[in-house]
Amino acid sequence: MSSVNLEYVLRLESLLSRIYPREHIADLLKKILHLADKWNYGKHRNTRWVDGTNIYLITYGDNIRHGEQPPLATLNHFANTYLRDIISDIHILPMYPYSSDDGFSVIDYRRIDEHLGGWSDIHHLSANFNLMFDCVINHISRSSEWMKGYLHDDPYYKDYFIAANPELDYSRVVRPRASPLLSPFIKTNGTELYLWTTFSEDQVDINFKNPQVLLESIDVLLQYAASGGQSIRLDAIGYIWKEAGTRCIHMPQAHNIIKVWRTILDEVIPGTRIITETNVPHHENISYFGEGDEAHMVYQFPLPPLTLHAFLRQDTTTLTQWAQSLNAEARYPDTTYFNFLASHDGIGLRPTETFLTDDERKYMAQETLRKEGRVSYKDNGDGTHSPYELNINYLSALTEPEDDTELKARKFLAAQALLLSFIGVPAIYIHSLLGSENDLEGMHQSGINRRINRKKLDLMTIEAELEKKDGLRARIFYGLQALIRHRREHPAFSPQAGQRVFDLGKSLFAMERYDPKTEDRISCIFNISDHSQMLKLAVEGKDLIGGEVFNGQMRLRPWQVVWIKHKLKAPERLGRLRRWRMKLIKRTKRYTISIKRTMR
Q1: For the whole model, what pTM was predicted?
Q2: Which of the following is catalytic: 89, 121, 202, 235?
Q3: Phi then psi for 291, rounded to 5 degrees?
Q4: 98, 123, 189, 351: which has the highest count of C-beta atoms within 10 A?
Q5: Is 235 considered catalytic here?
Q6: Which domain holds residue 532?
Q7: For the Glycosyl hydrolase family 13 catalytic domain, which residue ranges apply (predicted)?
Q8: Is 503 annotated as a binding residue?
């Protein structure tokens, strides 16, 4: 066994003792250390933390197809042809064999779905891009070997799932679905029982009260990290611990399990980033930062609905108030926000519960229905239901059906520029990058609401549409490309740079990003209205997007965005020159000392 860091072992022991009875800890520790050796403890990467050049792409492995070619190979071709200078990390949504929910009912965590390709395709893709894998560990498919073994009374799978009495009161349990919490199953010996199924009867919740389940999860996570998963998304992770008489969400044990995973990954495969997916009210979501010892990044769930609300109402008041509260929350080293506007899921409304009224959420639901989308509801536990998710393509939600191509692109790029401006790391969904709209045919044919935003695209068709420079796809793709290039060149957009949000009235959204190391300062101003607006700022500089010199005022066109890079004032320039001079002197001294030592 490799030599082991004692501090690491003691921390693991402390965390495990908060989850399991004392008599299990020694055996658990021993088995965890064996797993670390299995995955070459200490022999993997030690990479830098994220910076302003990190841009994630969110995609299914088969969102782009090309004839009989394995879709992962097609993704590799598309990414290397079009994305090398704008995307650093690719999040591949669940790529494992599955039985339902478009990949989120996993049959086997350790294999790649043969319809997508194989681990060799993942290896090829990782040559030029960092990869993010999904770990769907709250539940597993009823078609999995785990479930089959459990129903056959295989001793190995004893207590892998959560049997419960359907006669008891579960009204306190928080649910993201209106389907039954418990589903009936029949063992091979004829015994009927009810198992916990938070998301659907095909997705059976795993029992983390069984220490062997924790070991299974650690093995899976280490395999992912060792196989190229530099980032790992923990799907629906807030639900992993169930306790009778509680809400069964955000339990202390759930937080401690994530801390166990973080501790192990930091030690065994350093540089692996954990991203928690908890689509809940904001204050609950950010609790997954822990004390800087839990998630590296948390999904910025209020951003998509609040941005959409601002665009629909042409009123940035709520967005501004929320954004002003963000400044100090990701305050730990190596933690930040995972920002996005669209994903494979719909637009979650729960994160708006402390920011929008019920009437405003109903308005957003009505707008979604007017634009041919769908609304999903959650069970409140008291017999009532509330809008939970807007199932609609983000571009279709943001624009009007009668808008022309140029206006649709202008509105949508304004929203994407806002995403790219926020403190944190931006992630762009494949259908946003490519300017897709509602896939009504896919939704109607499948009967699945979320399919409205999951269309499978043909590579040749996409390439042809990107050649049509006045088309919607080309306007959005190349417009985003230009924005991303500007962002990656300026330290003010780094996740470590400061952010200040200020109020310029309801039609404008305004923030300033500032990097203290380089003194790079950029004012990001957005006209979120269909009227021109006069912008007045006590700033001199140049708009990075349009190239126009800014001398204190400018009239913004409808939906126009400016990124004004501040001109350094004379004292600031002098201060920067002095610092550069001091650095040069120090380097020269070190070089001189080094030469003298060599000559000796």
Answers
A1: 0.93
A2: 235
A3: -110, 40
A4: 351
A5: yes
A6: 499-569
A7: 72-485
A8: no
